[in-house]
Amino acid sequence: MELKGRSLIEPLDFSPEEMDMLFDLAGQIIQNPDDYADACKGKLLATLFYEPSTRTRFSFEAAMLRLGGQIIGFSEPGSSSVSKGESIADTIRTVECYADLAVIRHPKEGSATVAARNVEMPVINAGDGGHHHPTQTLTDLLTIRLEKGGFENLTVGFCGDLKFGRTVHSFIRALLRYKGVKIILVSPDELRVPEYVRADMVSAGMEFVETTNIQEVMPGLDVLYVTRVQRERFFNEEDYIRLKDSYIIDLAKIKNAKKELMILHPLPRVNEISPEVDADPRAFYFKQAKNGMFVRMALIMALLGVTKEGESCK
Ligand code: NCD
Question: How far is the CA of 22 from the centre of ligand 1 (A)?
């Protein structure tokens, strides 16, 4: 694979063909996971989480362990030299002395870029502030591809905190290159997408609509991507409390939706999807979380350049 030695910082770092290669490999792993049990034997993944995480960190760690590799890292920066004031550059340089690749999540935008610039090993951005989260996008795209076969001509609705939601920013950016995709953005006025995301859509010639009314747009959607209001990025708690329950997707709200609608959510969910929706065949968010591990297995293999036999690709 061409991806050997590369980093993944933002969703357009890989070409559509390279993404397809990853999705194909993830699909093969889903079919025969045991065949990959030794692919990363002798390799070490470092997970540097300066912000809380459940799915992203666990799925990366589970992915590496299921590939026969090993993991080191921290989930509490307070337990590492970060608490002594060490810079990202110095921490990542040190980690490179021990590990073959690193995953980093950090509250500051641009932190993964800084990390990648300071080392030779591949660095994967697992979320930099309210900016990007490209491996969540791989998860989202794989889930849609497995169900719908591709991305062209889909109408994709985003609902919730579109201002601070990095998974939204990355997913929209990735969709810019697929033909006929239409984006419907549903949020309170204060939580609309940042200007740079809007500018991206305009310059790509993508059709998009911004609205506050979910009911009106529901019947036209093929995919509904729901997000939590990102409490930790608000400047004051009162605004969070006022906006947090702006939309709650329940069975009544999806009554007039398509039968083939896919409801996605990067999770964690707070209140924005009622648990009664979980049993509906249109709820895909837990499948999506599972796919996250498989696509990360494919990504780790590709960046390390290993085959399922554990050999290095040329
Ligand atoms: C997301 C994140 O961290 O941005 N979670 C995840 O990685 N699955 C979404 C969120 O925290 O709301």
Answer: 21
